[in-house]
Every structure is written in C-alpha cells, then in structure tokens.
Amino acid sequence: MVSIDLTGKTALITGASQGIGAQIARTFHEAGATVVLNHPGIGSTGADADKIAAELIAIRPDSARVIAADVSQPDQVAAMMEEVGTCWGGLDFLINNAAIIRDRTISKMSPEEWNAVLDVNLSGVFHCCQHALGVMRDGGAIVSFGSIAAIQGFFGQANYAAAKAGVQAMMRVLSRETARRGIRVNAVAPGVIETSMAETIPAEVRAEMMKNIPLGRFGAPAEVAHVVLFLCSPLASYVTGQTLEINGGWRG
Fold first, then answer.
1. CATH architecture of the domain with range 10-246
2. Which one of 12, 15, 174, 222 has the minimum C-beta count within 10 Å?
3. 160, 163, 191, 229: the active-site residue
C-alpha cells in the first residue's frame, strides 16, 4: 500500500481561510502535517481561518496555527516566516495559494486594478518564496498556484493571466536556484474549480466553458489539494520545475 505520511512536517498555506487553500490545509493535516493557515486580515478571513484551525486542533492538539499577513507586503511576510521559524524551528512546505481578481478589459482597467492583482498574485509569491527560504529545511518543497488563465487568455483577465504566467515562470527559475538544497519547486495550474469565485461566473459562460472540458465537469477543491499533496510528498521526489495542469483535459 502506498501512502503519504507528513508526520513531523510543517506546511504554510497562504490564503487558507476558504476555498482551495482551506482544503489544502485540511488535506495536509490529514496526512499528519502541522499546518499554518495564512490569511490577509480582511473581512471575515481571520474568523474563517480561526474556525478551520479550531476544527483541526480538535482532531490533533497543537497541530494548526493562524497567522495574519498581507502577502503583498514584504515586511508582513518576513514577520510571518520569522514566527514560523520560532514556533517550529523551520518550514517544510510552502503553498502559495493567495490570490485576488479584478477583472476588466485592458481598455478600461485602471492602474490600481492592474497593480492590486500583480502585487498579491505575483509579487506576493516572490515575497513568500524569498523569506521562506530563510527558514525552510533542506529537502522541502514549494508549490505555487498558476492558472489555466495563463494559457487560455480569458477575456478581461489581463492582470490575472499575466500574474499567473509570471508565477509559473518564476517557479522554473526558483527550482534551479534551490536544487542544491534538495528543495523542489513546482506550480499547479487549475482550470475552473467549484469555489465561491467560480460561483460568480454567469451561467451562460459556465456552459460555454464546460464545452471545452472532456471530463464534462468543473473540478473540486479536494482534487487540487491531492495534486499539491503529491507534489510535496516523497512520491514526487524527482519532480521539480514543472507546471502541472489540473483542468479536466481543457484544451479549448
């Protein structure tokens, strides 16, 4: 029987208060890891992350912690990584999941909308990787979120697509820079996943998208979480510098 056991390992998931990030936290916890749930401290994100952490701690004491940090702010990221190092002596897995959208056509997109998405979705990944390397143990793994948007070029998502394409390129570079330490670095590029963000897609647009998916359905957060878990596990010990698409076969 092949199994994944992350007992004794520590994983930090950014944007872990809901959706895919929350599912990744639950999945890594189920595999035995201690999980750090990051949230930006906006709206209900703190309360949502606290609720998930309480759920996990009830299963296994002292196995989850919540840290507020806006990943677009390097000082906050540095403080978060310092706290992780102080509490657990280091970090084994970094999952860069935090992201926002500000969709608008290029002709109408404001500089603020462009910059907001690039600051979180691209620069935020850079800040987290840079500061995590100071506390990450050799032999660890980093998985960052790209997107099908980087490939398909969806209407009105120039900022989001550019950021996600940048993440995928950044991971290829970082995989070379960290190889000497045995730290593997990959990206995942999900298609449309059934989250609160996907619920905002108009029904007619969803129907058109579905025509491009051979499996005939959108993905579930658990299906993405399982791929991220695989990439951080010993089962993926020879996988680095890759972008793994999770999109049901979408080739539209």
1. 3-Layer(aba) Sandwich (3.40)
2. 222
3. 160
